[in-house]
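Appendix B. Raw example, untouched.
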Amino acid sequence: MAVAAGDRGLRSGELAVFCRPVAAAPAVVRRDGSVLAGGWLPDLARLGELERHLGDGVIEAIVAATLEAGRLRKRGRRRIMSYPLAIRLMLAMSLMPDASYGEALARVAGLLADVPFALEWHVPTSKVVTGWRLLIPADVPEDLFWQAAGPLIGDDEPSADTPANRAMFGSTGTADGSAPFPQLRVVALTARAGRALLGAILGSGAAGEQTLLRRLARRRPDLFAGRVTCFDRNFRAPRGALAYRPRSGHGLEEVSVGLMAYLDP
């Protein structure tokens, strides 16, 4: 939508500034004529598509119930952080594991950080963020999880088992493709000790694990280079980027991408 300033419309050739709406807030006009926003950034920050699935206002409702139960201490004035903002930051950090507190919070704030609020806001220090995270009881994120958990579609909604989805994703478990529903296949690379997910790749249910592994290695060779990676028996002698030849069925053998693979006996 274009909005023209003044009492006439734009003419072809005139310069126009195209803007993206960031926030809706009451205007605060100072004596010098400068216009500020009357809102407060922690009240306006949202998680985009992730929060649309959860539902707007759900996080605030959980915080209000926790405050009413006395499990959170009420704040008498606005601060650089808020309980809902701290919860949103915790969710965002799970999607940005390599980001620092400040980097994750800057992403949550997004373009709101550029809005000239009447009460100036800035990204707080890591110490401030840590203090706010420690105030959130562990069962509050659990409550949020149960708010979001549930079926992806209702009983009265169209089924995902369509010919188009079967053609795209395939299925597993039956030779004739008569499995109950289309399926995706995932091949994941995890850390041996902590079971942290290092990388993963998705493919159709008809795609083989070795095929998906080769795709993952081509796209992200850094996940494998210089590491010792353990495979089960299904990964014997894949061809291509991860090709290796088992000798006596056990031991270590170097492969073409600088990967060391442990072969099951």
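End of appendix B.
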